[in-house]
Amino acid sequence: MPESIQTTALAATAGSASDADLLAQTAVAVRAAASALRERFGAVVRYRTREELMRALAANDDVVLDVLRPRLTLLRPDARVVEDELAGGALPPGEWWVLDPAEGNVNHLHALPEWAVTATLVRDNQPVLTAVHLPLTGETYTALAGAGAHLDGRPLHVSGTTDLGLSVVATSQARPDEDEKVVRRIGSSITAMLLDALVVRTSVPATLHLLNVAAGRIDAFWQFAGARADLLPGALLVAEAGGRISDAEGRPWTPESESFLAAGPGVHTQAVTTLSR
């Protein structure tokens, strides 16, 4: 991955015509796949064991991938698909689709509205484009490196807030069964933000918080650990909407980083200071 998402976006051309067309077609594919998941939404899915939960999660993923994977293959026959949505780190050279077929899958199973379908194209470890669709609202968020971020075609801009004390901030769990050290770090970071920020929101999934950062509704989002599929779509959207992406210490972020921070430029440094306490 690049030293930072911002560097990638600024170094890119303003989105070639072919990539712009590819993004439009990717958005169509994501919406079609999301419709299949929407049909499964409604009643709470009951399960009694962890194994039953994992089967229910996998069933949702499979329904989306059965629609999304062949459509993306037609769009980019030589691009490979990342099989493990919880994985992090750099990818081999070439084009890769990083997918989260049911971002917020547990919410979906509990009949909660916070879930989405995402597809991000990574080319030689550079995020090129992303499409995120929220089936319950019908909204589609898109970003193309060097060409901006949009909600249903309307440009997105991060918040211009300059005071963390007036900011709405958010975080989410890194993943289930996280290391105790990371869990305690999450807890201490929430405490620090409760002291410094106006409002602290804690929920999953990460992508929906990052959509709100890109749209200027939330001023900052942070997370410890995390996977490519959780963070790449929102990171590209926030960067293209004018935000700053780093780790929690203010260093350039990559999917190998142990923390993540996305914020409007006016509060980014203040958020780093709070998270570094």
From TrEMBL:
Coiled coil: none annotated. InterPro entries: Inositol_monophosphatase-like (IPR000760). SUPFAM superfamilies: Carbohydrate phosphatase. This is Inositol monophosphatase family protein. It comes from Streptomyces tibetensis.
